[in-house]
Amino acid sequence: MRIGMSQPTEPSDQEPSTSSSADDPAGRTAAAALPSDSRPSAAAAANPMDGGQWRPVRPEELLRKNMPADATPSEPQDNPKLIRQRRQELEVHLRSCPTDQNAFRELAAIYRKEDRPHEAKRVLTEAVRIFPEDMSLLWELEEAKLARSLQQYREVSDLAGRLKTTEVEREMKRSREDWAYRRIEVCDARLARDPSLRHLRLVLAEAYIDSEQHDKAIQVIDELVEFDEFSPQAYLLKGKCLLSLGQDVQAMAALRAAGLRRAVVGPLPIRFAALKLLCETAERLGLDLTLEHYKRHLAIVEQDLVKHSAAAKKKHAN
């Protein structure tokens, strides 16, 4: 198994969590808006990695994407006893030879393999201190920080699914905010190093939404709407942000661009999510004729989603 957000094999080096998403600050995900036959499994929908509402980009598209060529650590063996022995050897070795960069990488890889991102972060922090010019080590350290934050979020989500106390709710809020801010921190740093990594702007916008910084999210999104590759997701996120800010008319314009634009046809889940929000908004505003128009388009997209889901299941069965 590849060590490592692919975020999937995924960045946090854990298998996807099945913890409850009831405490998600932004509510349903886009997947939750799909017709029942097209929705992911309950376990997948509950994955805290789904983050904010209408998320078109999963965190794995941030983590371990555009990985530096020399940032691939050695793959530890699968024998737990041998892994533990090798870990101990490397810890001792680095105390006497603290400039062995390969040893730092291998030790961090072992800690990731053992689902101990906090220890990987410790090792890589020291490696970056010794080799501050090595961008691949910095990249690995960012991965470890994200992995640790996501691990804590999952652990608290699991706990929140079992216990309903004020203390757990407070810890859930803290861990959710930390996960958002770690993504913001890493995206900002990577974009500063390489502005061409435009896909990170979607992840950055989602993190701002998760931290309820909708104005900042819109600023980031506006830099993407001119790129066909990102515009459907960007318009959907912008519409969601504008709805949160109470700007319904502007939100509907952005949602129409995500769900109905012919020049750039978005993926079915994105179009469905946008049309669903358009229907809800038109109904709330009492726009009956507009609502009927959106409902017709929504029904067509829903039928296409069901057909697509059936075809995918058939292909998988074969």
Automatic annotation (TrEMBL):
Q: What keywords is this UniProt entry annotated with?
A: TPR repeat
Per its UniProt record, what InterPro entries does this chain match? TPR-like_helical_dom_sf, TPR_rpt
Q: Where is this region: Disordered?
A: 1-57
- Establish whether keyword Metal-binding is in the entry: no
What is the top-level taxon of the source organism? Answer: Bacteria
The TPR repeats extend over: 101-134
> Low complexity bias: where?
22-48
Q: What residue spans carry the Polar residues bias annotation? A: 1-21
- The transmembrane segments are none
Gene3D superfamilies for the chain: Tetratricopeptide repeat domain
What is the name of this protein? Tetratricopeptide repeat protein
